[in-house]
Amino acid sequence: MNCELRIVFATNNKNKLAEIRDMLSGSGIEILSLADIGCHDDIPETSPTIEGNALQKAMYVYDKYNVDCFADDTGLEVRALGGEPGVRSARYAGGEGHDSEANMAKLLANLEGKDDRRARFRTVIALVAGGSSTTFEGTVEGEITTERRGGEGFGYDPIFRPDGHSETFAEMGHEAKNKISHRAKAVAKLVEYLKQKAR
């Protein structure tokens, strides 16, 4: 299929980039990385909300590089912890960077002794195209397991078991996860929107 549309995904997360490219395979939409447009900036994420962070990242790239782009932000919201880690999911354990092991260890420790392990992943994608912005949301409900399970995926995948499944995201592998994940649901809405616009 010929490429009908090129759009930048404003992320430095190679796992997310690969996941999105997999989801859009054969759609006629080519996803460019930040490196593809020569952007090596540390894009700010200073909003107190998931929606705000996604929009902030997309607007930053659009304003500086004058390209249509989208950005996402994802949070794991745990009911017994009042919605934590939420917008701070990637840096939950503190410090610089994204230390998944430390984040999972902190979350499991904070849930110790709690019966309610309900949680949901929530992704918001902000698209900035032609100067206007649109957002798309995807969620998946589930629970936090008591220990890490599986070697696939990234982030909190080894301790999140989605409803209706016996496996964690990290046990089910990329292909199965990409059919049901929070990001897949938000991307599906984005793709449908882009296809409508291209008609």
Textual characterization of the structure:
- With 199 residues, the protein is an alpha/beta fold.
- It has helices spanning 14-23, 50-65, 100-110, 169-180, 182-198, and strands at 5-9, 29-32, 69-78, 85-86, 118-129, 132-144, 160-162.
- Strands 1, 2, 3, 4, 5, 6 and 7 form a seven-stranded mixed beta sheet that branches.
- Strand 5 and strand 6 form a beta hairpin.
- Helix 4 (169-180) packs parallel to helix 5.
- It is globular, with a radius of gyration of 17 Å.
- The mean pLDDT is 91.
The 3D shape can be described as: globular
Q: Order of helices and strands, N to C? A: EHEHEEHEEEHH
The helix content is: 25-40%
Q: For the CA atoms, what is the radius of gyration?
A: 17 Å
Rounded mean pLDDT score: 91
List how many beta strands DSSP finds.
7
How is this fold's topology laid out?
Blueprint: E1 5-9, H1 14-23, E2 29-32, H2 50-65, E3 69-78, E4 85-86, H3 100-110, E5 118-129, E6 132-144, E7 160-162, H4 169-180, H5 182-198
Parallel strand pairs: 1-2, 1-3
Antiparallel strand pairs: 3-4, 3-5, 5-6, 6-7
